[in-house]
Amino acid sequence: MQQLRQNAPMAERVIPLVDQRSAALRAVVPLHAQAPTGHLVDTRGRPLRDLRISVTDRCNFRCSYCMPKEVFDKDYPYLPHSALLSFEEITRLARLFLAHGVRKIRLTGGEPLLRKNLEALVAQLAALRTVDGTPPDLTLTTNGSLLVRKARALKDAGLNRVTVSLDGLDDTVFRRMNDVDFPVADVLAGIEAAHAAGLSHIKVNMVVKRGTNDHEILPMARHFRGTGTTLRFIEYMDVGATNGWRMDEVLPSAELIERLRAHLPLVPLDPASPGETAERWGYADASGRHDPALGEIGVISSVTQAFCHDCNRARLSTEGQLYLCLFATQGHDLRSLLRGGASDEAIASAIAPIWQNRSDRYSELRSSLPADATPGPRRVEMSYIGG
Ligand code: SAM
Ligand code: SF4
Ligand code: SF4
Questions:
Q1: Given the CA of residue 111, which atom of ligand 2 is nearest to it?
Q2: How many angstroms does the Cα of residue 67 sit away from the middle of ligand 2?
Q3: Which residues on adjacent β-strands are paired with residue 361?
Q4: How far is the CA of 36 from the centre of ligand 1 (A)?
Q5: Is the CB of 67 under 6 A from ligand 2?
């Protein structure tokens, strides 16, 4: 077991690291195969609608809340290329998940644009169909560093939308947060390139850490207001086991909205779809009504307001393990079925009971944990299962 000694300002913290990646559960093919019905529900009545696929566990940033430099250093055991699902394997699984009712596919990582020729995967996924006969809603989350180079090819390959992560406009703050000295200007150029390529509904995700970048909330809101880009503020989460998360560094969304409303008029909006993670707020005009030309913001209250009750998301790790929750400690190994010669019918039949037996609702349960509870060491990292 590796150990991390963090240079925390208050007291020295030692974070034990356990590699959970290989501790997967076997996916079992039932004796009697069942054809997908296009509608799988779990034990809490939640349908399977959204599949997030991590295409690489590597990243060119070292955001302290996700891949802290002290852990993800040159000795970190990233997965070898042979362990990664190939584009063909990903596409095959995606097709089976669509047959089970998935409508939306998000490519993520690590940094997905580091995966060579990602546009080829996008083209393969864009050619698939949902049970309604429509193309899947295909989107990508990226740190934006390679978007200037990639936006056009991704759009041409069939990508519908993109979400870019950006934690502030102040260059010093942002360079410190990504911890590789990457400038804000290059991410903004990436967002521009995405607009220019015709990608629609561009979103920007800002993880807010109290005392680190919360003073950037208002400048970010002002910058993106009326630009057609929707800014979403994410509460800093206790995901993974390496970021040294502390509750006092979380800025609750309610407080964030209060701070913004002191400067910018905002009105609550209805959710766009069931299972939507963000609570929406629209910029208001002089009469106090939402002005669509000014756009909207979103707040994702992953810590202070659990949204497990309608969580319809499954996550496929870089090496083909199916995770049912961001905070799960184990995945279900689908790669051995793929590589063991199982038929489509057998793999689809193995996926069904995994979702049907799902009862995960970590965020709902978190509120019943003691306020000073720290995350256990057994969780997988977000860079591995994808955000
Ligand atoms: N590298 C890409 C990026 O940064 O957009 C995609 C992968 S990243 C894991 C996906 C999203 O998770 C990003 O928006 C990132 O800001 C968010 N994220 C990572 N760690 C987080 C944490 N501890 N709390 C909240 N959000 C986090
Ligand atoms: Fe990389 Fe994204 Fe994690 Fe930052 S949040 S370290 S960009 S994977
Ligand atoms: Fe979904 Fe798990 Fe997050 Fe709850 S904690 S919203 S079940 S991923």
A1: 8
A2: 6
A3: none
A4: 32
A5: yes
What does the pLDDT look like over 362-380, one tens digit per residue?
A: 888 876 766 555 545 567 7
- d(CA 148, CA 182) in angstroms, rounded, equals 14
Task: Say if strands 279-283 and 266-268 run parallel, antiparallel, or are unpaired.
Answer: antiparallel
Q: How close is the Cα of 74 to the center of ligand 3, in Å?
A: 31
Beta bridge partners of 200: 161
Phi, psi of 295 (to 5 degrees): 85, -155
Distances (CA, A) of 190 to 57, 121, 178, 217: 22, 20, 16, 20
Match 């936006």 to its residue by tokens: 151
CA-nearest residue, atom 4 of ligand 3: 308
What is the structure's pLDDT at 3? 41
- Give CATH for domain 2-385: 3.20.20.70
* Residue from 300, 324, 360 whose mutation best tests the ligand 3 pocket (most atoms within 8 A of CB): 360
**8 Å CB contact between 318 and 55:** yes
Question: By C-alpha distance, which of 239, 356, 318 is closest to 53?
Answer: 318
The rounded radius of gyration (Å) of the Cα atoms in the chain is: 20
Ramachandran sector of residue 269 (left: φ over 0; alpha: ψ -120 to 50; beta: rest): beta
Beta strands (DSSP E) in 104-212 are: 104-108, 137-142, 161-165, 200-208
Paired residues of 2 in beta bridges = 17
CA nearest ligand 3 atom 2, residue:
325
Ligand nearest to the CA of 312: 3
Q: Is the pLDDT of residue 7 over 70?
A: no
List the beta bridge partners of residue 207.
234
Q: From ligand 1's centre to the CA of 237, what distance in Å?
A: 10
| Phi then psi dihedrals of residue 93, to 5 deg | -65, -40
pTM: 0.92
Retrieve residue 98's tokens. Answer: 């669509």
| Res 51: pLDDT | 98
State in Å: Cα 9 to ligand 3 middle.
Answer: 30
